[in-house]
Amino acid sequence: MPKRDFRRLIGPVSSYLGSSSALLASSLAVLFTFALLARHLGHEQFALNATITALTNLGVQICGLGSQEALVRRVAQDRSCYPRLLGHVHILNLTTGAALFVIGMILIPWMFPISADLGITLLATALILFTNIILLKIVWLATNSYIAHGRFAVANRIEFIFAGLRMAAAAVACLVVNITTVAEWAVWNFAAHAVAAVLSLAAIQRLGRPRFGLLREELSIGVMFASQFFFKAGRNNADILVLSAVAGSELVGSYSIARRMTEASYMSVDALNRILYPGYAAAALNGVGRVCAHAKRMLSVTGGIAITAAFFVWAISSFLPLLFGAEYISLPLLAQLMCWTVVPVAVAAAAFEALGAAGLQRIRARIVNLSNLIGTALVAAAAFLIGLSGMIVVTYLLEIIIAVLAWHALTQAASASVAGGSLKVDPAESTTDTKAA
Q1: Crossing angle for the helix pair 249-284 and 342-357, nearest 10 degrees?
Q2: Which of 320, 329, 356, 384 has its CB surrounded by the most CB atoms within 10 Å?
Q3: Are 234 and 372 in contact (CB under 8 A)?
């Protein structure tokens, strides 16, 4: 390789290694926390925790109405607009977060009471909602703010600190205090997130003060963006909610762990997507065809990373009961069956990233929302009527169909762009799949 090309390669590779290391640390922290909770809570309390977490995962996708995406996209193009966008995000995070908190305080104690004591149930529910929605959004805002400014090292550092705090809280709570209930874990989880949120707010303040006010042109784009992740989260969590109603706690707990393992393996792909966005956004200014060409070149890399990650989970699946506990009997088989779903998900994500960066948000939202809305019903029906095996088969079919639809839409848009000339993109319409992640 010529020296000039080698030097050009060093920057992206180092960025990917830093990003993937941060996300890997975060994933390991979650898995370590899951392992400790699975052992110390027992499968009944652990299944209850997984079910409540599935509900809060829906709420966190709505909180802020997708405003952090606008922050990443527009600040990456013009850093002078950061104060206005930061104020926009703060307003939407606070208002929607407060509404979701009230809704959660009504639904969770009624659907999934944490304790026989109403007072303990209400207090634990309040801590869980505040932790998993509002505090988590603050941490995501800090990482996204630094990603928008191109300061990936600081964003990765925030991820490392957050991961360390969660691991420390789980270790102390389970190994020292020896907690045994969801209510007890809610206190420790809140403490770890609170410290991380305070540090994140201090990090955000160093970038500048917010200028409060809503950006009306970003509201509809943000809602469209948030809706995609809400419907996706709905499909990804419908299985756990249905299983909790029709299956035993051991199966629900084992399935939750296997799902978490699969999600953790996707982080290696997500790390790549975080650093690909600037290239996609720059290419989008020259037309959809250029973005499509970039995405096609990176597809082999994305697919290779996904296959490697899936094979790693498959290889270690037999040893998972040693980590999570011998009572999770079905865990190894479930991990082996589910780990390969990361491959079609990664293939679809490559196309969705390109569609978003090219400003084709409506096309992308149509595919994501409709497929996940139908998929939620199919997955829930399969789990209820056929059982776990039917649900897994439906999940694979859905992921493959979504990947085919995403790439079909991207190639069609690229062909139309070439036929009609260079299609320029309005920066206010372009977007990214970068998570607040």
Answers
A1: 30
A2: 356
A3: yes
